[in-house]
């Protein structure tokens, strides 16, 4: 035991030594993180590698908000309507047959598609209609076996407005900016706030229109049963140098949303089908506080009203603080679970506040508190939080060609590369560079080519 420990410390020291020339804050935090990686890597070495390949799969669904354009909206609404019509027709036909013969009949959607008055059923996704058949059959068998009540008609807006379609060949595609569905024109814009599961094979999509008109897309993925652990992925990375085996993200502190990540997203998460955004959660209350504060200023000091108003304001402040912390906790937990390597810029908060005169926004947007949370949560999850040198020119470097654009001004929100012509949001570009720099450091640490 002791022997192992000494050996491990020496190894950690040897690797940490290559960082001696970096700024102190970074050197120390990287060293700590590296120690942990090595501990993980050593733990793997002890177990026989090359475990039996597991061919079992599990399904996992991810729900994303979508933003269809007018023509997509119309087509999907039409599909939902057609599904409802087919379902209800199947129900009345089945009920009738049951009454006459006492037997359940199997009905295919083609029965209705071939009817002249329903010929427009051919204009929507046939797989969605096939799923209606399956759903109807399940409803009847559940009813007859006593598992559930008698199937009822689906009423518009009462029953869920949704349909399900399956992957057949190449008919459904998910890319990083959208979803392609059969018979729906173009690419439906999706907000992929949570990364698509790694190694996930898409099986089906359920399209739902909520009563408020918002569209949601539930993607069902088939995944290998046992997900690889972080240690296994790191091991694979060391062996192959392939950084795609790691889930990685870079965050660039950015106002007013706290940060922009290397996928170009501001912090937000999904809770009970709502997208929670930092700005909305927090700024609304800030306005309210300002309003109550103005009201207070018009009151006579130390009057009863004045004191009641003070309490009201104090409560709002407490609520704002609570909401902010809740958001930061949610966000940091989700990131530390979803990603293996998170790279952030090592900012000197005091220096920024002074030099940019952005004091209030910088401190109350909670970046510092957020980083503290990320730190201990990454440690708890066994994940890696890397800090890159604060002098690393993250926003001046072109993420496409690597050109360093020294003339970029602080006020330039868009980066236009004079060499390769790449045009990108300044903060998103910085986040990508931070992510890349984190991976570069990892490669350096493990001497991976
Ligand atoms: Zn460039």
Write the layout of secondary structure elements.
Blueprint: H1 2-17, H2 24-46, E1 57-67, H3 70-101, H4 110-113, H5 126-144, E2 162-166, E3 173-174, E4 178-180, E5 188-191, E6 201-209, E7 215-224, H6 230-240, E8 248-254, E9 258-261, E10 268-271, E11 274-277, H7 278-297, H8 304-338, E12 341-345, H9 349-356, H10 359-364, H11 367-381, E13 384-388, E14 414-416, E15 423-425, H12 426-446
Parallel strand pairs: 8-12, 12-13
Antiparallel strand pairs: 1-5, 1-7, 2-6, 3-4, 4-5, 6-7, 8-9, 10-11, 14-15
The structure holds zinc ion.
What characteristics describe this protein?
449 residues, alpha+beta, 2 domains, seven-stranded antiparallel beta sheet, four-stranded mixed beta sheet, 15 strands, 47% helix, 18% strand, globular, disordered N terminus, binds zinc ion
Shape: globular
Low-confidence stretches: 1-25, 41-55, 357-362
Bin the strand percentage: 15-25%
Mean pLDDT: 80
Structure explained in plain terms:
The protein is α+β, with helices and mostly antiparallel strands and 449 residues long. The protein folds into two domains: 58-224, no CATH class; 231-446, no CATH class. Helix content is 47%, strand content 18%. It has twelve helices and 15 strands. Strands 2-6-7-1-5-4-3 form a seven-stranded antiparallel beta sheet. It has a four-stranded mixed beta sheet with strand order 9-8-12-13. A two-stranded antiparallel sheet has the order 10-11. The chain is globular. Residues 398, 400-401, 403, 417, 419-420, 422 line the site of zinc ion (ZN). Residues 398, 400-401, 403, 417, 419-420, 422 line the site of zinc ion.
């Amino acid at each position: 035991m002791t022997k192992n420990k000494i050996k491990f410390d020496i190894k950690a020291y040897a690797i940490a030594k290559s960082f001696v020339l970096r700024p102190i804050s970074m050197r120390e935090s990287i060293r700590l993180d590296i120690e942990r990686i090595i501990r993980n890597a050593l733990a793997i070495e002890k177990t026989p590698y090359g475990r039996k390949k597991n061919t079992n799969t599990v399904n996992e669904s991810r729900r994303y908000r979508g933003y269809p354009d007018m023509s997509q909206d119309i087509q999907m609404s039409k599909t939902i309507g057609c599904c409802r019509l087919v379902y209800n027709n199947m129900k009345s036909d089945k009920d009738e047959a049951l009454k006459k013969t006492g037997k359940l009949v199997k009905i295919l959607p083609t029965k209705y598609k071939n009817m002249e008055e329903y010929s427009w059923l051919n204009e929507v996704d046939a797989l969605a209609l096939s799923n209606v058949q399956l759903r109807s059959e399940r409803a009847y068998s559940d009813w007859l076996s006593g598992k559930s009540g008698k199937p009822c008609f689906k009423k518009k807006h009462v029953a869920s407005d949704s349909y399900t379609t399956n992957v057949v060949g190449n008919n459904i595609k998910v890319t990083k900016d959208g979803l392609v569905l059969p018979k729906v024109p173009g690419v439906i814009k999706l907000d992929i706030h949570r990364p698509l599961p790694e190694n996930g094979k898409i099986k089906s999509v359920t399209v739902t229109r909520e009563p408020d008109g918002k569209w949601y897309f539930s993607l069902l993925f088939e995944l290998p049963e046992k997900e690889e652990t972080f240690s296994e992925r790191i091991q694979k990375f060391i062996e192959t140098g392939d950084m795609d085996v790691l889930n990685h993200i870079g965050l660039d502190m950015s106002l007013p949303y706290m940060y922009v990540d290397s996928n170009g997203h501001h912090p937000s998460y999904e809770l009970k089908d709502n997208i929670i955004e930092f700005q909305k959660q927090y700024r609304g209350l800030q306005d309210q506080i300002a309003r109550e504060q103005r009201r207070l200023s018009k009151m006579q000091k130390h009057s009863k009203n004045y004191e009641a108003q003070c309490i009201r304001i104090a409560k709002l402040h407490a609520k704002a603080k609570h909401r902010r912390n809740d958001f930061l906790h949610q966000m940091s937990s989700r990131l530390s679970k979803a990603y293996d390597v998170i790279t952030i810029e090592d900012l000197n908060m005091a220096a920024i506040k002074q030099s940019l005169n952005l004091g209030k926004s910088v401190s109350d947007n909670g970046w510092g508190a957020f980083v503290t949370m990320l730190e201990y949560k990454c440690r708890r999850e066994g994940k890696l939080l890397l800090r890159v040198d604060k002098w690393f020119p993250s926003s001046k470097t072109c993420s496409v060609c690597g050109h360093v654009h020294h003339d970029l001004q602080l006020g330039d929100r868009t980066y236009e590369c004079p060499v390769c012509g790449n045009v990108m949001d300044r903060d998103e570009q910085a986040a990508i560079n931070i992510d890349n720099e984190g991976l570069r450091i990892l490669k350096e640490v493990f001497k991976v080519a």
